[in-house]
Amino acid sequence: MARQALLRQFSFPRLEADGQTHARDCECARCEAGFKPSEGQRREAEARMKVQAQRHLAESMVRKAQERRAAKRLKVALELEEHVRQTDLWLSKQADDFARLDEDRMLAELLRLRAEGVPANEAMERVETRMPARRAPRR
Fold first, then answer.
1. Contacts by 3-10, CB closer than 8 A, 24 or more apart
2. Residues 6 or more apart from 127 whose CB is under 8 A from it?
3. Residue 137's closest CA among 109, 88, 100, 86?
4. What is the pLDDT of residues 22-42, one digit of tens each?
C-alpha cells in the first residue's frame, strides 16, 4: 500500500487538450490531495483554447494572404522586366533602322526635292534617274 501511494505521489499529471488543465482522471499528487480544477475552470480553459486556436487560424490566414500578395508582386515584377527587355530590343531595332535611313542618299535626295515643293511622282523620277537603285540588304 505504501508503495502504491509512493507511485501516485510521483506520477505525472494527465492534462486536457489545452495542455494546462488536469484531466478528470488525473491521479497526480495534487489531484489526489483534492486540488482538481472545477468545472468552471475547465470551461474557462476550453474557451481560452478555442480563442487561441482561432487566433492561430487567423494568423495563418494572414500569413498565407501576405505570401500570395508577395508572389503576385514578384510575378508582376517579372512580367514588367520581360516587357522592358522586349521594348529595349524593339527600340534598338528601330534605332538601327533609323540609322540606315539616315545613310540612304536616295531617300535624302527625295526628301530634299519634296521639301522644295517638287511633286512626289516627279521627285521619284528624278531620284531614280540620278542615282542607280540599290538593293537593301536582307535580314
1. 8/32
2. 106, 109, 110, 113
3. 100
4. 777 787 777 777 777 788 888
